[in-house]
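Work Package 3 committed the consortium to producing structural models of liganded targets before the mid-term review. Because experimental data for this complex are still outstanding, the team generated a predictive model from sequence and the ligand definition alone, so that downstream docking and mutagenesis planning could proceed in parallel. The input record is reproduced below exactly as it was submitted to the modelling pipeline, together with the SMILES string for zinc ion.
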Amino acid sequence: MIKSNLHTHTTLSDGRNTVAENVEAALGAGFVSLGISDHSYVEGDTGTVGKDAEERYVGAIRTEAERYAGRIDVFAGLEFDRFSPCRRELYDYVIGSVHLIDCGGRLCQIDWGHEFVKWVTDEFFGGDVLKLCEEYFRTLAEHVKENRPDIVGHFDVIALSSGVDEDDPRYIEMATGCAAEIMKWCTRFEVNTGAMGRGDRDKPYPFRPVLEEIKKRGGTVIPSSDCHDAFNINFGFDEVEKLLRSVGFTSVDRLTKDGFVSDPI
Ligand SMILES: [Zn+2]
Ligand SMILES: [Zn+2]
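The resulting structure, written out as C-alpha cells with the ligand in place, is given here.
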C-alpha cells in the first residue's frame, strides 16, 4: 500500500503535535503525502479551529507544505462537522464527520465517553440506544447530502460511546441502510483506525457489514489513522489492508496534486 494519511489532527485543533512534527513522523514512516484535517469550528469547543480562523489555519499548513515540497506532499484539509462553518474553497479536501447531534435544540457531543452518551440516550431518546443511533445516522446522511464532502469520516463512530450491540440485526440494517443512502452523494469512505490507536476498539470504522455494503455498491475506501498523536500516524494500516482484501477490495484511494487516484492493494 502506498503510504499516506489524510486524517491528522495537530496543535491547530486538539492534536498533541505540530504540523511539522506530523510531517516528520510521516516522512519517517515512508509516506508520500500527508493531509492535515483539524476539527472545524464548533462554538464552545476549544479543541477546534477557532472562529473565523480558517484562513490562518490553512496558511499555517501551506507554510509547512512549501518547506517540505519535493520531499512529501502536504495537503490542507478539514474535518468538517455537521454543525460547523466551512470555507470549502480554501481546502484541498474535506472529511465530513458528525460529532454532535441536535437534541431538541441542544447540541450534544456523541464521542464524549460512555457516561455522557448514556445520559444523552436516557434524557433525549427514552433510554433507547437504537433511537440515538438513528438520529446519528440521520444527521450524517443529511450532512453528506447537503455538503458533499470528499470523504465520509468515521462512519459508525456512534458505536463506541453508545455501547450499541453491533451484532443486533436492527443496528446492522440501520448502518448499512445509511451507507447505501449516503452513497448517492459521496462514495468514498475512510477506514479509520483512530479508536484502535487509542486502545478503545479492536476494529476500524466502518465495521465489516458496512464495508461489505460499500464494496457491493461500488464505493471506494481510504485508510486513515485519525491520529491526535504523531506516534500513531499509520496505526493499524497493515491490519486495515488485510481486512479490506478479505472484504474483496482490490484498491484504496489516495489524494495527489491531481486529485484522487486509486492504488492497487
Ligand atoms: Zn472526528
Ligand atoms: Zn478526527
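Reviewers should note the following from the model. The pocket of zinc ion (ligand 2) is lined by residues 7, 9, 79, 226 (CB under 6 Å). These observations will guide the Year 2 experiments.
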